[in-house]
């Protein structure tokens, strides 16, 4: 892990209520996937290319729904006001200042309109995307989509890896189920039928996705795809992009490490839409490996929460700066001029030699 990120994590651990630290840090089941997401990156190495670099590197990436000044976006995570009183407002400001996208979660503790306003107060062109779980009651989904559109979000991220809630042992041990008094999932107010809770349903299907897509002209990303055949289906169902993710090890503890699932998805998609990876990215080297394996960008979840807990918007800004700086350095060391110079032939598995 990048040492700056490790310091922020330790500072977060020191300031957070241990129950909330564990909510952020923990995973499902025996936390096998949680560990594997990071460990799998350490099993991979990058073969540098020589004599082809450039003094200043261009880190910009264009994605449906926004331009990123670094190939790192903020993955959707719930309940930012548990980490810092300003919550998602601070995260939004930091992401906008860094020139990247915040994917704001449906389970945010600040309403989406206020999140977008915070980003735009820093940069009028800032892009905020809205993450949601397709709800079995489609009137609820439609209402959430309309709110995101009205707020000015520039893409939707539909999370499909959660047919049921993951079972988080640490939360069960602490008895952590609800937000403390004074905090709420602000996007879930005043919904059709008086719904207040996010529902996970194993019966949500591709038909729901099709109908959701018909309600909006925003680019639609599908998050939580691991099987290459689902990636193909996603493209056939008209998504603008695919996020390879195992939810940071918080859903199935039998899933492979995210980076291990990435190449087959990239091959299946075959360049028709961009692929983003999240899970276990803890330094600029991980960003470079993911891009070399075909990701257009990566998402970071927990490191942003550590930054937010440690020092609010400044802490999140520090996380993004550290990742940008380290990624740029690794790119230079590999003879890269821009992210497109990171190609799959550079990636080798440690201990297996180079062919
Ligand atoms: C998440 N993640 C998540 N994803 C999503 O689509 N909707 C959500 O509400 C949440 N909530 C959430 C809460 C917390 C505390 C964490 C840590 C994660 C998953 C997130 O978007 C992303 O997939 C992972 O966090 C990526 O892994 P890393 O970067 O945390 O290792």
From TrEMBL:
Pfam families: FMN_dh (PF01070). The active site is at residue 247. GO terms for molecular function: FMN binding; oxidoreductase activity. PROSITE patterns: FMN_HYDROXY_ACID_DH_1, FMN_HYDROXY_ACID_DH_2. One of its GO terms (cellular component) is cytoplasm. Glyoxylate binds at residues 23, 133, 247, 250. Its cofactor is FMN. FMN binds at residues 76-78, 131, 159, 223, 245, 278-282, 301-302. Residues 1-352 form the FMN hydroxy acid dehydrogenase domain. The keyword Chloroplast does not apply. The keyword Lyase does not apply. Keywords: Flavoprotein, FMN, Oxidoreductase. PANTHER family: 2-HYDROXYACID OXIDASE 1, S -2-HYDROXY-ACID OXIDASE-RELATED. Belongs to the FMN-dependent alpha-hydroxy acid dehydrogenase family. This is 4-hydroxymandelate oxidase. It comes from Saccharothrix saharensis.
